[in-house]
Amino acid sequence: MALFANRYRTHDLGLLLLRVGIGVMFTLHGYPKLTGGVEAWTQIGGTMKLVGINFAPAFWGFLAAAAEAVGGQLLAIGLFFRVACVFLLGTMIMATIMHLSSGDNFNAYSHALESAILFLSLAFIGPGRYSVDQLLFPAPRRLY
């Protein structure tokens, strides 16, 4: 049956849709945090205490907000894709740790955990053919 044939011709289109959808959503989540200023960044960055990092909470909060806002945009267009995935993965790991340490139930931390799994997977998969990375850094052609 053609529906179940493993041809994967639409693989890159699927990656494009996934990148743009998730990238836009993370940009929308991160932009208010990024424009929240030092107070918001300090509150967000305070989460780093849970892993023993007690210095510069505003820096860590800014980094998390930028990872979501700017990283979401980079994800959507497929530019510096794996770097963006790594920063987003770190942010989502810390969000999961924060929810778990607060004693939140699964429904509270599942989004952060699912996003962490998504970004880890995407870092291995890559951005696909329809990305700025593919234009700027094309894969070398195989000679066989």
TrEMBL record:
<feature type="transmembrane region" description="Helical">
    <location>
        <begin position="112"/>
        <end position="132"/>
    </location>
</feature>
<dbReference type="InterPro" id="IPR051907">
    <property type="entry name" value="DoxX-like_oxidoreductase"/>
</dbReference>
<comment type="similarity">
    <text>Belongs to the DoxX family.</text>
</comment>
<keyword id="KW-1003">Cell membrane</keyword>
<dbReference type="InterPro" id="IPR032808">
    <property type="entry name" value="DoxX"/>
</dbReference>
<dbReference type="GO" id="GO:0005886">
    <property type="term" value="C:plasma membrane"/>
</dbReference>
<feature type="transmembrane region" description="Helical">
    <location>
        <begin position="79"/>
        <end position="100"/>
    </location>
</feature>
<keyword id="KW-1133">Transmembrane helix</keyword>
<dbReference type="Pfam" id="PF07681">
    <property type="entry name" value="DoxX"/>
</dbReference>
<feature type="transmembrane region" description="Helical">
    <location>
        <begin position="51"/>
        <end position="67"/>
    </location>
</feature>
<protein>
    <submittedName>
        <fullName>DoxX family protein</fullName>
    </submittedName>
</protein>
<feature type="transmembrane region" description="Helical">
    <location>
        <begin position="12"/>
        <end position="31"/>
    </location>
</feature>
<keyword id="KW-0472">Membrane</keyword>
<keyword id="KW-0812">Transmembrane</keyword>
